[in-house]
Each structure stands twice: as structure tokens, then as C-alpha cells.
Amino acid sequence: MVGAEAQLRIIAGIYRSRPLASLPGMDIRPTSDRLRETLFNVLCAGNPEALQGSTWLDLYAGTGAVGIEALSRGAGHVTFVESTAKAVALIEKNLRSLRIDDRFQVIRGEVGEGLRKLETTGAIADYIFLDPPYRLEAEYTRTLAILGHSQVLRPGGIVIVEHSKRFDPGTEHAELRRFRKLEQGDAALSFYRK
User: Fold this and answer.
1) pTM: predicted TM-score of the whole model, two decimal places
2) What is the DSSP string of 44-100?
3) How many domains does the chain divide into?
4) What is the pLDDT of residues 31-44, one digit of tens each?
């Protein structure tokens, strides 16, 4: 993906227009600027203060773009969970480039293990974003099943899933129910609540 680094930017908030680094290949496929803008417009629904102090989990975090966007827009804390060393290094590089030195945690490990660890520490999130590589369709079902039984999602909290529009991650997973689905280009966002 030639020039992808220059094109990946924070959309709004205190780090607006600041660039983020990426890696070539489709396994680390950053959420497009346009889709991220749609996501945050839905969550804020005309209230730019809606995310102030919120807590986030950015699962399969890749570049960390969604979690960093949340921090830029006032989130109080973001936990990034990513399994590959290259992606963890990339997230840390992006955080350093913006001089973000608190309000986050980076967990290197498989998402299921990361969620179990967070649950044992009593972590609770207002928003959970998950975006595995599109080709790993079983990861969607597995992770949503874990989240459907987990206490890590605050009552009234929202799980947001980015997926290919050609793949449907399902409408129900244990206590999670999809309440909205948006398509944009080849991608889609599914929103779930307990």
C-alpha cells in the first residue's frame, strides 16, 4: 500500500490532522478515515462531549487508529490489545509520536487471553471496538461470544465490530444484540449492546 502512512490521520479532537504510521499488507488494515469518521459521528450523535472520560478497548488494534482517535476526542482511557510484536511496536510508535504518555495500556497477546486478564483485574469499558483481519471470520464469532458473557462491558456499553460487508458477524451472541448496522464501501460496522 504505497503512501498509506501519509494518508492515515487523526480526524478530530486534540490530535486532529496528525499522521499515524501503518504497515503494508492486509492483516494490519487500518480503519479508513471515512469509516472512523462515520463511527465517531454515530457515537457522538451531534454531541462532541459524548466521549469525555469514556473507557475503551481496542481489540485487534493494528495501528491503534481507532483507540487513538477516541483519546483525541476525550476518552479517559484506552486499552489496546494486539497479538503481533510488529503491531504492538507500531501502536507504541504512534502513541509516542503524539506524545501520549498516559491514559492507555497496551497488552500484547491473543484477544481472548487479554479479555480474561482484563476481567480478572475488574476492568470495565464503555466502548469495545474489534476489527480482526477480515479473512479471520471465526475470530468475530469467538470474540463476540466471549464478550456476550463477559463483565468487561459496562451496562449500557457498546461493542462496535468492523467487518467486510460480505460477512455478517450475526445478530446475537449470548447477551449481546445487534441494534445497528452501517455499510460503507467494502466495510461495515455492526453495533451491539447487552
Assistant:
1) 0.92
2) HTT-TTTTTT-EEEEET-TT-HHHHHHHHTT-SEEEEEE--HHHHHHHHHHHHHTT-
3) 1
4) 788 899 999 999 99
